[in-house]
Design goal:
The structure is a single chain. This protein is an alpha/beta fold. Helix content is 43%, strand content 9%. The strands form 3 sheets. Strands 5-8-4-9-10 form a 5-stranded parallel sheet, with helices on both faces. The protein has a 3-stranded antiparallel sheet with strand order 1-3-2. It is globular, with a radius of gyration of 25 Å.
């Protein structure tokens, strides 16, 4: 007897429905187990947790268990509609008091002074070096210990350390610096290429290596969160990464005879004073959005939201810092993120399924908590198979703008950078008051290949399914609309999706 395909579909649907239920229940059970394990520190002691983090996972929302198949298009649309109906943007957030910040990170605030050397863009200062000047100054630095790729750099720093000490009244002093500017986001948005191009400018010196992730992860002992907790990197380890920049800055300064290491009389020694002095920078694509560690280390929260964000600490220490953000169509960003971090069995169909599961988890959280709470919910974020929340740019940007002036933040688009790299780099140079680049730099900007391009195997997987793209566009639309409104630039709506980065000079940029 012949059986039609329609009959096969009808008889198999209940089975598929049960399989999806079993899978989702397995995911939820696995989450509970995973976060109990992740809450254990290396001594096996449970770290502080917040009860709210688990309750939203109990109820996946009214549209549960219908999301893993392309056939369930109507159900997925309902989930997205439910999510977008709950989107709200607060005009401001409750800012923490400085005292509360200091109490939460007393060592960091004791190691970094409140006043810095005048005449220098970077927050720099002299501190007395109390160690043995004949021993290795980086012997306890965890970056030096675990970053084998940069052993050559640290070896050079060791060999030149003593010659850069400043001696006064028989005591050795070293110059310390924080970065003047930060490339803070977002991942898979071209930050690596931006970093590489900016390094071409002679007045720019970055940290020893890209993406130290100190503000978001290393200072908490997270490397990464999926591996549990490790040793916490003290602020001194982070400052060591800027020793090369400090040496360059120190070389452009001269203290007169009446000065002292704590309050030197400085003569600005820039070769091109009208274009600004040498400045150090740092580029970690997690700085803008990643606050996952808060739930383990900050006990008190309001409605499940972090009491402190990364930006609060940065502002408290250096309120005049500058920030560069590179964004990309969040739909394309998510697919690129999936291709880069996915390990096995990657496909457009698998991506669709993971998007659907992530939307369900996010919608389930919204049934009990505010949109902002769910964006910062560590459990939800780590449970979602794909990082939907990273593309909610406006949520993070509005928080950064509660403490920093709009003039201190430059927001760029990868699409513009990919089509005209020289144009965006001129905007960056102007933003940092670096002045126009030399002809040699101009030539390099034009001919150098794009950095961090997509792997060939990932390119061969092709684009995401049209249905997935449509669903994601609906999901991100209200967030993009608010972003375009705040930035007063409709290009951040990403409506002209035909100008995809797959058709631009950075053909396969991640």
């Amino acid at each position: 007897m012949q059986v039609s395909m329609d009959e096969v579909d009808c008889t198999s649907q209940p089975i598929m429905h049960i399989k999806r239920k079993i899978r989702l229940y397995s995911v939820l059970f696995g989450l509970a187990v995973m976060f109990v394990v992740m809450a254990m520190n290396k001594k096996g002691r449970l770290l502080p947790t917040s009860p709210y983090r688990f309750s939203s996972l109990v109820s996946p929302g009214p549209y549960a268990f219908n999301l893993s198949s392309v056939k369930d298009y109507a159900h997925i649309k309902l989930v997205v509609k439910s999510i977008t109906s709950k989107v709200e943007f607060r005009s401001s957030r409750q800012l923490p008091e400085l005292k509360a910040l200091v109490n939460s990170e007393p060592h960091m605030f004791s190691a970094i002074p409140r006043k810095f050397l005048p005449g220098v863009k970077n927050p720099c200062w002299y501190e007395e070096y109390t160690g043995n000047i004949t021993s290795d100054p980086y012997r306890t630095n965890l970056y030096a210990r675990y970053s084998s790729r940069f052993q050559t750099v640290f070896e050079h720093l060791r060999n030149t350390f003593r010659e850069h000490l400043f001696h006064r009244d028989g005591k050795p002093y070293r110059m310390r610096c924080l970065p003047y500017f930060y490339i803070i986001g977002q991942p898979k948005c071209g930050t690596t290429d931006l970093y590489d191009q900016l390094r071409l400018h002679p007045d720019v010196k970055f940290s020893t290596f890209k993406e130290p992730h100190w503000w978001t992860r290393r200072r908490f002992g997270i490397n990464p969160l999926s591996e549990g907790f490790h040793d916490r990197y003290p602020v001194e380890d982070y400052l060591d990464l800027f020793d090369q920049a400090a040496y360059k800055i120190k070389g452009k300064l001269a203290a007169n005879a009446s000065g002292s290491p704590s309050q030197p009389n400085i003569i600005i020694g820039c070769k091109r004073e009208r274009l600004g002095c040498l400045q150090g920078g740092e580029a970690s694509a997690s700085t803008m959005w990643d606050n996952h560690a808060w739930v383990y280390f900050y006990d008190h929260a309001t409605e499940g939201e972090p009491p402190f964000l990364v930006l609060d600490f940065v502002h408290a220490l250096q309120p005049n810092a500058r920030f560069i953000i590179m964004l990309r169509d969040p739909v394309e960003r998510l697919y690129s993120d999936y291709l880069y971090f996915g390990i096995a069995k990657k496909s457009a169909e698998d991506f669709h399924e993971k998007v659907s599961e992530s939307l369900q988890l996010f919608e389930g959280c919204l049934t009990a908590y505010t949109m902002r709470s769910c964006v910062y919910n560590t459990t939800i974020n780590n449970a979602m198979p794909v990082r939907l929340q990273v593309g909610l740019y406006i949520v993070y940007l509005m928080d950064w703008m509660t403490v920093f002036n709009r003039e201190q933040i430059l927001v760029l688009r990868l699409e513009d950078h990919a089509s005209n790299r020289k144009y965006t780099m001129h905007k960056v140079f102007d933003f940092l008051n670096l002045g126009p680049p030399t002809k040699e730099i101009e030539s390099e900007l034009t001919r150098s290949p794009a950095s961090n391009i997509r792997r060939t195997a990932d390119k061969n997987l092709g684009p995401m399914l049209p249905i997935t793209k449509e669903i994601l566009r609906d999901f991100y639309m209200p967030f993009n609309e608010k972003l375009a409104e705040v930035l007063q630039n409709d290009s951040f709506l990403w409506e002209n999706s035909k100008l995809s980065t797959t058709h631009l000079p950075f053909t396969s940029i991640k």
